[in-house]
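User: structure tokens for Cytochrome P450 phenylacetate, please.
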Amino acid sequence: MQTISPVEPFSNLRLSYHFVLASCVFLLGIYIAQDFIKRASSGVKLPGPRGLPLVGNVLQMRNGHARALAQWTKIYGGMFRLTLGDREAVIINTHADVNKTLIQQGAAFQSRPEFKLWHGAFTKALDPDAPTTIGTTKYSEDISKYRRLLTAPTSAAKLPRFNHFAARRYSKLVNLLAESAKSGVAQDLAFHFWVTTIGISADILFGQRFDDDVTRLVADVNVRSFRQRSLATPLHDYIPLVASAEKLALALASPIRFVLRPFGLSTTWLDSIREAEDSAKDLRDAEIGFCTALLKDLHNRLDVGDQTPSQLGDIFRTVEPGTLTPRDELRLATTLAGSGMSGGTTLTWLTALLAAHPEMQEKAFRAIEEIYGGEVPDPMDTDRVEYIKALGLEAGRYFTSIRLGFPRETHEDVTVDGVFIPKGVLVVYNSYQINRDPQRYDFPEELLPERWMDGHYGRTDVKQSKVGVPHMNHGAGRRVCMGVPNVSKMSYGTLVLLLYFFKLERGSLGKAARDAVFPQLRAVGEASLEVHPIDDQVSVCDAQALPLAAGIKLTVRDSKALARWLAEGHRELDQWDRPRLDSE
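Assistant: Done. Predicted tokens:
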């Protein structure tokens, strides 16, 4: 009988371990070599910062998009190249370069890239064939079809058809603000603004007035789902080795925990990987759920002859039967359901700043009084008070809540200033930096509504024609956001009522107020009185920059006027019970 040495099994184990380790090192070496070869044969010959093997410039971005890109813009100019893991990216940083690319050669820059978290874990979480939103889908003839369908119902000329929905929301907003004022303590007001802007968007999309529970659900899903798409994060979106390692870790989760736990080593990183995907699935489940239910309800109403104006209803009533599949309809619904998200975010930023600047509030109030002579302003009377319109425009430029826009991808080979950019390259218009382009804006680091008043268009030192988009928070050229007219209208209506009825003052949040912050992730801190666009955001890498919580104490300017308007004054808008159809 052969005797086996007690050392022999461990010796074999060590040999196996060394073999596995050597194999891993060998494969990693091949991967790095391929990485260097790929970079050496890059298709874009633009300057840019040197990156690390495997990860490129990803880690340099994770300390904050805005500041990293601003620093590189000073060094490399209006257009430069980054490597983000296995992806090559062109970054556009000035208005002049936007004009050369997105405007003058719009056809080449009209596609969208795909990201693993958004297009994979989120969009495909429940159904591999589930449609992405129109704004995040690669260019195709279908995209052109969808945008043509949406052109009329989202235009500024058609928005008055939906004023009766907006009137209800503005009444609800002023009631919420009045309750906050009655409390006598500082509260975070973001929920009021998001429920108003997202609520108006959902109401006019489906043609019905939603209750508070549905509106809160739509707002919550859209605020959190926007965090699924960002640049340079999460790492597995850009570095295949990380993606493969995470998949392997999840597949071997049980044995990994079995091995590590006896040694007291943490396995929470395994849970965080799973939680990110589970969260994406939950969000998608909620989004598909309420959009599907609301589409079904809309069709039921249309089938019995309902003529209530709505963006989707107007489309469904005019297209030939069979033109749109259920998948097409779901894509339209998910695209527009949360279109008030950026408007609510910008209002949250702006009001926190206004609360620390009583002089700006008084200037706004005097401007309203000058137009309306002591009467309550009409929130539907969009743009009548120039200072209110200018406040909304300037807040969009200054805070630039959508920091890096919605990324593009080259739809075809293109040459810009002699530089060849092949098809399929990730293109990012750095909206935060473009909105601070000194050639386009004087005093770019200051919030100055006056740059949009009295014939000025971006600069206070010169009057100029209103050519092009005022700022890049909603894009430019082809694939520009179609909801801009609605965002501008909601911003004006909200600000004119808020600043007419109330004075704002910053204050610290008590425990109850902190617990009520929406969404709760914003309660990790409180914004400074300066309300700095970078320092006072929840995360420096979010695609949409959410501001930290801000305590605002409201004081009613004229309690009798407010009480009168809440009781019956809003009905004078003539939009309470019926739509205005004069623009049909």
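User: Anything notable?

Assistant: Residues 141-239+276-573 form a domain with the Cytochrome p450 fold (CATH 1.10.630.10).
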